[in-house]
Each structure stands twice: as C-alpha cells, then as structure tokens.
Specification:
The protein has about 325 residues and is α/β, with parallel strands linked by helices. Helices cover about 40% and strands about 20% of the residues. The protein has 14 helices and 13 strands.
Length: about 325
C-alpha cells in the first residue's frame, strides 16, 4: 500500500459508523456513570446486563464496561463524566439520578448518551421531545420524582389522622424544587402541614432526623434520591425507632424492612438502559431511539414493619398492593 493510501484509510476510520468501528475493536466500551454506589446497585447492574444480553452483548466477552460511581456526591459527576469521555468510550450511560444524566449530556456532544431521569427530560433540556430526542442523547424516564404527590396521598390514606407530615429531601437533586412545589400543593389540598427536612450528606442526615423529631411529625415521606438509597438502612431504622409510618420510592425499601413503597419497577428501567446501549453499539443513532417511559408502578407493603409500629393497613389499601411482605 502506498503511503498516501495508508493515510487516507487511517484518517477515514474516524468517520466510519459506530457499528463498523465496534467490529474493528474486539470489545467496544460502555462508560457507566452513576450517582449511586456499587454496594447497593448489584441487582440493578444485573438488570442492565440482561438488557445488553438481549442484543448479544456479554460483559467480559464482547463488551467492556467501565464503571464510575459518585456515591451520592453529585458534585463529582461532571469530573467523572469527563474522565469517561477522555478514555474514550463508545456509549456513555448516565444513571442513578438526574444529576448523572445532566453530567453525561454536558460532557460530550458526539459520544452517544443513554440517560435515566426521574424528572421530565424535555423540561430539563435533555432532549427536544420524547419521540424524537435529537442530537446524541436518548434514554429512559423513570418518573421517580413525578409521583411524589401520589405517595403523599397513599400516606394520607394509611394514616388520615396525621396532620403534620415530614418530608425528607435532598436539596442538591435537580428536580428538588419542582418536587417540593408539587408536594406543597397536594398537601394543601388535603389539609396537611409539611415539615421540610433537608439532607445531602451523613452529617446533614443526622440533623434532618433530629429536626423531624423536634417538629413532632406524625408520618414521613422520603423523596426519591440516590443518596437516600445508599442510606436506606439508616432511614428505615429511624422511622421504625420513632414509630413513624413512612413511604418510600422503590420496593427495595419495603423489602429491606420499610413500611410502604410506591414507585416504578427500577430493574425494568435498568434493563432498558442495557437494551438501548446495545442498540447503539450495533449502529442505532440516539436521535432515532424514542425516550422510553417506565409505566409499571408497584405498591409494596410490609406487614412486619406495620406490626413493629402498631399500625394496621386499611383493607382497601392492602387489596391494591402488588406485593405484601408478611
């Protein structure tokens, strides 16, 4: 081969479609960025890998996954996203909270991005529309933060005599303000008073617990937040010790000993992240992949936790539960 021809071939490789470049590499690379920690995400990673396997990708065999975890410190996410972009990766997956999704999008305008968001991805400026995302970004809307009013309604149904409701929230979550506004309107409608308790790290969580006790709240609503997922055991223990009826966002809280949970099937969301990452590795463009919405919601109640705080579930609420833990 002549030198000029060699330069042309090498220079043109960068412009080849992703699928063609993936074939040249023995193992395409997925960058996995999460606001959570690996210790509490094993079951979610298993779901992510199932999604990849549906299109023939198996970690360690024909795809490499590089993981970076913020462990609830959302300020680290932009740096971690930039790190993955520099490596580089073929697909960047930003999950474990809206802050991860935003950091992934901000880090690159060329590498395909698959995101997971609890808020509205259109309102957040992640995509132009759900059906036609545009650009290099698509993903899954898990609606974790958009049903906070529904959780308040379920808590009110469970303990209608509780006038003062504690709301544990992380102010650093991008959707925190909108969640608080929706919740305030819903609380006013049913005549309840909210005590807002904020925490974004361990020291603040202790102070948040103390505030809830001082204010004498009669029940507790825990906001959707990856940092709280990491502190799940501490939060559940606090609610049980103080005999507080509490509702959480994911079934993992109820199975871990929490009283009540209502939210999306998070494992289904992570499976879909894997499905979309695999499609992109095979050549699909994010702009052509509509943003998916997880529409399956689960109501899980824990009778053992109810007994521990001396509470009985109303029959109507128990009859609607998707799962009852004895």
């Amino acid at each position: 081969m002549k030198r000029r021809e060699f330069i042309t071939v090498v220079g043109g490789a960068a412009a080849w479609p992703l699928a063609a470049r993936a074939q040249l590499s023995a193992k395409p690379v997925i960058g996995f960025l999460s606001g959570r920690s690996p210790e509490d995400s094993g079951y979610l990673l298993a779901a992510f890998r199932r999604g990849l396997a549906e299109d023939g990708f198996v970690e360690g065999q024909n795809v490499t996954i590089e993981y970076l975890w913020a462990r609830g410190d959302y300020n680290r996410l932009p740096e971690l996203a930039a790190d993955l972009v520099k490596r580089p990766v073929d697909v960047l997956v930003g999950v474990g909270g809206d802050a991860s999704a935003r950091a992934a999008k901000a880090a690159t305008s060329t590498i395909p991005v698959v995101f997971g968001m609890g808020g509205d991805p259109v309102a957040a400026g992640m995509v132009a529309s759900l059906n036609r995302p545009g650009g290099n970004v698509t993903g899954v809307a898990v609606l974790a933060s958009q049903i906070v009013s529904k959780r308040l309604g379920l808590l009110h149904e469970l303990v209608p005599g509780s006038v003062v409701v504690g709301y544990l929230m992380n102010p650093n979550v991008p959707s925190a303000a909108s969640q608080l506004q929706d919740l305030g309107e819903a609380a006013g409608t049913i005549g309840q008073r909210l005590v807002i308790s904020r925490a974004s790290n361990d020291a603040e969580l202790d102070a948040a617990f103390a505030l809830l006790v001082r204010q004498g709240v009669g029940s507790l609503l825990v906001a959707a937040d990856p940092y709280f997922d990491m502190q799940r055991a501490r939060i559940i223990e606090f609610a049980l010790q103080n005999r507080l009826p509490a509702i959480y966002q994911f079934r993992e809280y109820a199975t871990a000993g929490g009283l009540l949970s209502y939210g999306v099937d998070l494992t289904e969301a992570y499976r879909q992240f894997g499905v979309y990452a695999a499609k992109i590795l095979k050549g699909a463009k994010p702009a052509d992949l509509p943003v998916q919405q997880v529409v399956k919601f689960e109501l899980v109640i824990n009778l053992k936790a109810a007994k521990a705080i001396g509470l009985e579930f109303p029959p109507t609420l128990g009859a609607r539960a998707d799962e009852v833990i004895e």
